[in-house]
From TrEMBL:
It is found in: Cytoplasm. Pathway: Amino-acid biosynthesis; L-histidine biosynthesis; L-histidine from 5-phospho-alpha-D-ribose 1-diphosphate: step 2/9. It comes from the Bacteria. InterPro entries: HisE, PRib-ATP_PPHydrolase-like. Belongs to the PRA-PH family. It catalyses: 1-(5-phospho-beta-D-ribosyl)-ATP + H2O = 1-(5-phospho-beta-D-ribosyl)-5'-AMP + diphosphate + H(+). Keywords: Amino-acid biosynthesis, ATP-binding, Cytoplasm, Histidine biosynthesis, Hydrolase, Nucleotide-binding. This is Phosphoribosyl-ATP pyrophosphatase. It comes from Dongia sedimenti. CDD domains: NTP-PPase_HisIE_like. The keyword Membrane does not apply. It is an enzyme of class 3 (hydrolase). Its main location: cytoplasm.
Amino acid sequence: MAEDNVLEHLYQVILSRRGADPAQSNTARLFAKGKKKIAQKLGEEAVETVIEGVKGDKDGVIAESADLLYHLLVLWAALDVKPDAVWDALRSREGISGIAEKAARPRD
């Protein structure tokens, strides 16, 4: 199964947990706590991934990356962000230097 298919499948599983019993599903528990808590958990997982990277722990990075991606998909689902919208955004950046892409972003 290709990576995007794994993520698509996980996203569908996550969507199926919306409205489920929080006592039976960690994903449902996250949804019940709201977007702020989901975003906080995503941040925690990002920090844990960074820590493992700084330590140079490949297995730790793999495990924390899986947690990070899971929590990212939960946040997407909570905000009704479809994976295809993210894939399209990535595709639109293909062939554009990161410096040029950043410079083209609107400034506040």
